[in-house]
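Supplementary Note 3. Input sequence used for the single-chain structure prediction.
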Amino acid sequence: QVQPVESGGGLVQTGGSLRLSCAASGSIFSANVMGWYRQVPGKERELTAAISRDGSPYYAASVKGRFSITRDNGKNTLYLQMNSLKPEDTAMYYCVAGRGFSDSANGAEIYGRSHDWGQGTQVTVSS
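The predicted structure, written as discrete structure tokens, is reproduced below.
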């Protein structure tokens, strides 16, 4: 199954910035919703940001005001601009495409994922 390809992670100091990219096939990128999950060892993946095909964004409370998600439909690429990074942002970041988005008491998620998980890109923020 085709997977998205994440890139742009790295090591950065507190307060620094990174821009993540996700390249995907047209079949994946045509999904209604795309987003970025992150995961630290021993914890479940957390939806960090999502964006609909019309550009409506969602941000987790922990990143609101610091992260910005955009998508370039012509290039089949999803981006996550991360500013004012904190050590707690350290995680593996994964790109996801799916049929829809829900935000409930149990948390936010992209459902109907249309592909296998990619390799992810590691973000490490030093204090």
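Residues 104 and 110 are 12 Å apart (CA to CA). The chain is about 5% helix and 50% strand.
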